[in-house]
Amino acid sequence: MKKETLSILGHELVSEHILMDESEVKELLDKYKIRKVQLPKIKVSDPAINGMGAEVGDVVKITRQSRTAGKALSFRLVME
Amino acid sequence: MRLKRIKGIKFGLLSPKEIRKMSASKIITPDTYGEDGFPIELGLVNQRIGVIDPGLRCKTCGGRMGECPGHFGHIELAAPIIHVGYAKMIYRILAATCRRCGKVLLGEEARAKFLDGIEQQKEKQADVGDVVKLVFKEAAKNDVCPFCDEIQKRIKYDKPTGYIEIDKEDKERRLMPTDVRERLEKIPDDDIPLFGMDPKNARPEWMIITVLPVPPVTARPSITLESGQRSEDDLTHKLVDIIRINQRFMENRDAGAPQLIIEDLWELLQYHVSTYFNNEIPSIPPARHRSGRPLKTMTQRLKGKEGRFRGSLSGKRVNFSARTVISPDPEIEIDEVGVPKDIAKELTINVNVIERNLEAIRETLKRGSEHPGANYVRRSDDKKVKVTETNHELLAEELGVGWKVERHLQDGDIVLFNRQPSLHRLSIMAHYVRVMPGRTFRLNPTVCPPYNADYDGDEMNMHVLQTEEARAEAKILMAVKRNIMSPRFGRPIIGGIHDYITGLFILTWGEKRFEKEKAQDMLHKINIHDLGEPAGSFESSSGIQVPYWTGKQLFGRILPKQMDLQFRGVVCEKCIERGEKCKKENCPREAYVVIKGGDLVCGVIDEMAIGSFKGKIIEHIFRLYGEDEAKKFITDSARLAINCIKQSGFSFGISDEDIPKEGKAQIREEAVYAAEHKVEELIRAYDAEELEALPGRSLEETLELLIMQELGRARDDAGDIAERYLGIENAAVLMAKSGARGSMLNLTQMAACVGQQSVRGERINRGYQGRTLPHFKSGDRRAEAHGFVRASFKDGLTATEYFLHAVGGREALVDTAVRTSQSGYFQRRLINALQDLEVKNDGTVRETRGTVVQFKYGDDGVDPSKSECGKVVDIDEIISDIVEVDVGA
Ligand SMILES: [Mg+2]
Ligand SMILES: [Zn+2]
Ligand SMILES: [Zn+2]
Ligand SMILES: [Zn+2]
Question: Is B628 helix (H, G, I), strand (E, B) or coil?
């Protein structure tokens, strides 16, 4: 039997999480001249991740509300 | 040298084998130096275990004094001795193991379970202490060995180093260290991990000492007294005792002395070895020096504030630094520090003599140790010579290129100045030295806010920079003028405080007129000699037209030419927030400040204009004209303020809280009595069950809330009435309104009404059952009975008011004490967590491995100290600059 889960995505307090494709990730890594592991991390078990079908090694783009900048971008690597 | 990486640290016990192996010499004689003055062979100050005499060489490594690090020696003890530090552990092990076979008194099952638990903890790199504790507890319960069926006897620990075995018939037998050691030896290696120990590094029997390591002489050097007599270190004294008793023990045993004497000597040896490790063991008297002073042995060297850890390792003192009390000097620049001459003569700066400074340094050297002189020179042959009364002239003559001179600190040198607690980077700033008479550091009061300093006895530290690179960095990064803007809130943190604000407020309030003489008196010290055109003239008593200048005009003289700025001061009554239109130039309180073309057109200068933390004018000048202009403005305004306040004088006293009779009556009737009456009305309504509960509250809560509101209003009303009777000419009002010091609430409490006291935001409800003090009836809900203080501080409180005020006051006191310690610790943890983060050139914030923490610093990439109060730009100001529209219109 599948467990009923409540999706928290779409709640106003949960920032928007979008899965990035290969080319977007490459562009991002090139822009900051970093390796994937140098990105901030997020657990695959995170409620914001496990609903969207992302796998370990994927990168998600997060748009947050920011007090200083209005909107702020962050990128996080999905990990174990 | 090849770099090596530390993989781990292993702790263990020294085995007798190891001690002998690391020993450079056996020690058998208790004597130190022979008649020839040389250390005795096999003695305690043996030449194989280190040298402390100049000229001698170590017989182990060949090094001279200072080169040889020292080597351990060892003493073969005649009989085993319990190590006091492990006495408790030995007891636990004895109680947990079989007296015959030595195995831990646990069944196979329990044993496996505990071993597994310990293994698991180790894997997690967690503490095994809790599991080990359980092992001891469980094993000690068994009184029959599960392996050899031996019936166990109870072990009693006789502090500090004795063990007594008690059998079923309560017969006692003392276990000698030899017995104990024998038992510990029997414990199989496989059982050792149950005690949290590793049998390879720590066998339990090694806790019983058979061979005593002797620390190198370098660790216990003797000192030579003025009389030429040697005075040995306390450890050496103790070792002498140990060797003596050890010898006597052996002699007696070899001579076949009775058991009683042997046991006595054994105990004596135990005492000496125990106090050698720790001379503060409870239950045994400390070993004393001949003078009666207790000896400082091993534990005493390490323990406590002055011990090795807290005193020598964590608490090292730094060279080239000074510490003394600070006192104010408004005459020095904001980036200067007044240094007492005595300190300047002690702290030095190293200069390399080159052709260009040769003559200047020669002059310095000619003065010898007179103030701007020198303490040492290093000649070109690298020989260091102390500058003395007798040789300084000769040295000055000889001085040549290539020499190095340690000259005194002098005017213009750059130093770091610091006040603890160093909570932010502005707690250490670079100042320029100004050598002065006296014994205190002098500091311009405008730089007090970043250090959070005052002059009630605060002390500060000064560090003299020793390299050219350090001086350059300090000048560019840490100079006071570089740090006028706070990196925290983007406003000046250096600026006017207290009397500076009062002074300029008095100067610019209304239309004060100054004759030429007075005007010049205020400005000539700031090097402003052009007063500009007079504002007008008045006729003197002798009928001559006398020109005058206004205070606003004089203030304009210290502003940069062509400066334009408009803002609202702190005196503004929040017209806009209250929905009224700002009266701007016509503001009756002169709250609207307009500066045009470098002139103060209207408005009064208050905290908002020049105060630290606010300082609009300082901020404006800093951004538009740069740090040097800002620094100049701060010093100029401070001096102008002082010169102005000096002309009229300014003081505050008990009579400043005087309110005329009719005012007092009005406060009593209109504020206090009226409120108390309303409260009684509310209570009556409550008792009559006419009161309606507010949403989400009980009836009682509603009543309390309404009463609190009513009484809160009473104090505000009282304050308003008092304010009507106390004009701006009142010193306290002037200070409160201009933001110099204190608030209107302070004044209200002093002059009109102290108001409601509270504990946890509620009226005071604690004390006896149903009442706060025995003076009231139980169930009394009136204002008076729950901490409303209707008196003012000046009038004085009644007894009940006084007590209830103390109740509220205590809470405030405890709150601040708790809050400061908690927020202080919280900030420390934050700083420790964040200290390695860095803003990289691409704007990202990263930690040491290069992992990104933030893709843009603070999301917007703005440095607060370079921002307009946290924002990138102040749109209002830019618009008003261009369109000539007023702020916030
Ligand atoms: Mg103080
Ligand atoms: Zn040596
Ligand atoms: Zn046994
Ligand atoms: Zn206003």
Answer: helix
* Ligand 4 centroid to residue B607 C-alpha, Å: 15
Q: How many angstroms separate the CA atoms of B622 and B866, rounded?
A: 10
Please determine, for the modelled complex, whether the ipTM score is greater than 0.85: yes
- Give the CA distances from residue B788 to residues B218, B668, B784, B813, in Å, rounded to whole numbers and listed in that order: 71, 14, 5, 19
Tokens of B394: 């000769």
In single-letter form, the type of residue at position B651 comes to S
Residue with tokens 């409800």: B765
What ligand has the least distance to the C-alpha of B451?
A: 1
Name residues whose C-beta falls within 8 Å of residue B873's C-beta, 6 or more positions apart in sequence. Answer: none
Give the per-residue pLDDT at B450: 95
B250-289: buried (b, 16+ CB within 10 Å) or exposed (e) per residue? eebeeeeeeeeebeebbebbbbbbbbbbbbebeebeebee
The ligand that comes nearest to the alpha carbon of residue B593 is: 4
A60: contact with B, CB 8 A cutoff:
no
Size of interface A-B (CB pairs under 8 A): 41
Cross-chain residue pair A32–B842, CB shorter than 8 Å: yes
- Per DSSP, the three-state class of B523 is helix
Contact B797, B755 (CB under 8 A): no
Q: Which of B489, B837, B851 to probe by mutation at the A interface, max A CB count within 10 Å?
A: B851
The residue length of chain B stands at: 889
Question: What pLDDT, on a 0 to 100 scale, did the predictor assign at position B580?
Answer: 72
- Distance separating alpha carbons of residues B175 and B184, to the nearest angstrom: 12
Q: Count of CB atoms within 10 A of residue B220's CB?
A: 22
Query: Cα–Cα distance between B765 and B762 in angstroms, integer?
Result: 8
Using DSSP bridges, classify how beta strands B838-839 and B404-408 pair: parallel, antiparallel or unpaired.
unpaired
Distance B23 CA to ligand 2 centre (A): 12
Distance CA B751, CA B719 (A): 8
SS (H, E, C) B84-111: HHHHHHHHHHHHHECCCCCCECCCHHHH
Residues of chain B with pLDDT below 50 are 885-889
Interface touch A72/B856, C-beta < 8 Å: yes
User: Would you call A77 an interface residue with chain B, using a CB distance cutoff of 8 Å?
Assistant: no
Give the pLDDT confidence score for residue B147 in this predicted structure.
Answer: 86
Q: Which residue of B has its CA nearest to A68?
A: B860
**B270 neighbors B158 (Cβ within 8 angstroms):** no
All residues at 6 or more sequence positions from B366 whose CB lies less than 8 Å from its CB, including other chains? B392, B393, B396
For tokens 């010049």, what's the residue?
B520
